[in-house]
C-alpha cells in the first residue's frame, strides 16, 4: 500500500469481531448501515466466495440512484478476519465496464477485522486505486467522511445485533 495510490480508514468498533463480520457480510444486515444516512441501500447481493458478486444499489435525496449498480467481484474471504472485493472485475472475474460517479474508476477494497480485546474490533478499510488521479477523485468524493460515517453506523448496528443475541 502507498500513500499516493491508497486511502485508509481505521477505527475501533465497540462490538466483537463475530458481530461486526456478521453485519458486514450478511446482505440484509449490510443494507441497514452501509450507506451514509439519509442514503439507503435498497438492493444488495453478496456471494461470499472468490469470484462471487458484490453489488449494491444506493438511493438518496435529490433522486440520487446508482441504478442497479455495477457488480463487483469478491476476491478473498477469511471468515471473521478479511473481506476484499474489486469494482474492476465482475462476478467470475470478468472485466467490468466503468460506471458513473463512485463507479467511474476501478477500486479494490480490503477490509480487515481483528479482535482488539474487551469485545472490541480493530477495523481497517483500505481502498486501492490504479492511479493518483483516481485516489484523489475518490478522496474528493468524500472517502474519509463517507466511509467514516458508515463505520460509525456499522458500530451502531453491530450493537443492535449484540442486544438481540
From TrEMBL:
It comes from the Bacteria. It holds the Pfam family AHSA1. Gene3D superfamilies: 3.30.530.20. Residues 14-158 form the Activator of Hsp90 ATPase homologue 1/2-like C-terminal domain. Belongs to the AHA1 family. This is SRPBCC family protein. It comes from Sphingomonas brevis.
Amino acid at each position: 500500500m502507498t500513500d499516493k495510490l491508497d486511502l485508509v480508514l481505521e477505527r475501533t468498533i465497540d462490538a466483537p469481531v463475530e458481530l461486526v463480520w456478521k453485519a458486514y457480510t450478511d446482505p440484509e444486515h449490510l443494507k441497514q448501515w452501509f450507506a451514509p444516512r439519509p442514503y439507503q441501500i435498497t438492493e444488495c447481493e453478496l456471494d461470499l466466495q472468490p469470484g462471487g458478486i458484490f453489488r449494491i444499489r444506493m438511493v438518496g435525496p435529490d433522486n440520487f440512484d446508482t441504478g442497479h449498480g455495477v457488480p463487483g467481484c469478491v476476491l478473498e474471504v477469511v471468515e471473521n478476519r478479511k473481506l476484499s472485493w474489486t469494482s474492476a472485475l465482475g462476478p467470475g472475474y470478468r472485466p467490468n465496464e466503468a460506471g458513473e460517479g463512485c463507479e467511474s474508476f476501478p477500486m479494490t477494497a480490503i477490509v480487515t477485522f481483528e479482535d482488539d480485546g474487551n469485545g472490541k474490533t480493530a477495523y481497517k478499510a483500505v481502498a486501492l486505486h490504479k492511479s493518483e488521479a483516481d485516489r484523489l477523485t475518490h478522496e474528493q468524493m468524500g472517502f474519509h467522511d463517507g466511509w467514516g460515517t458508515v463505520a460509525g453506523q456499522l458500530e451502531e448496528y453491530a450493537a443492535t445485533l449484540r442486544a438481540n443475541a
